[in-house]
Amino acid sequence: MTTPDDDAPKPACPICGKPVVPAHKPFCSKRCADVDLQRWLGGHYAIPGREDDALGRDDGSHEE
Ligand SMILES: [Zn+2]
After folding, report:
1. Which residues are listed for Zn(2+) binding in this entry (predicted)?
2. One-character DSSP codes across 37-54
3. Within 13 Å and on the Cβ side, how many CA atoms surround 28?
4. Is 90 exceeded by the pLDDT of residue 13?
5. CA 11 to centroid of ligand 1, rounded, Å
6. Which residues are annotated as part of the binding site?
7. Following CA atoms 55, 57, 59, 64 in sequence, which dihedral angle do they give, to the nearest 10 degrees?
8. Sequence-distant (≥ 6) Cβ neighbours of residue 33 within 8 angstroms
9. Interval between CA 48 and ligand 1 midpoint (Å)
10. What is the pTM of this model?
C-alpha cells in the first residue's frame, strides 16, 4: 500500500517512450537527444516554404 514510487509521475522519453534518465533529461539516452536535435535542425531546413513565415515570428515569448 505504501508505494511512494507510484506517486511520482514518471516522465517518458518523447522519442521512444522509455523512462527518462536524469543524465539525459528529458530523454532516455544521448541517442534520443541526438534524434530530437536532428529533427529540430532537419525540420528547419527540410520544410520548403512553410506558412509559418506569414504568421510572423515568436520573439522570445516563451512562457514557463
Ligand atoms: Zn528515448
Report:
1. 13, 16, 28, 32
2. HHHHHHHHHHS-S-THHH
3. 10
4. yes
5. 11
6. 13, 16, 28, 32
7. 80
8. 24, 27
9. 28
10. 0.51
Q: Decide: 57 and 48 in contact? Cβ < 8 Å.
A: no
Grid-cell match 514557463, residue found: 64
14 closest CA partner among 1, 3, 25, 2: 25
Domain positions in the chain are 10-43
Q: What tens digit of pLDDT does each residue of 21-61 get?
A: 999 999 999 999 999 999 888 865 555 555 555 555 566 66
Concatenating the DSSP letter of every residue in 11-36 gives -B-TTT-PBPPGGGTTSSSHHHHHHH
Three-class SS state of 6: helix
Residue 33 C-alpha cell reads as: 537527444
Binding residues for Zn(2+), by number, are 13, 16, 28, 32
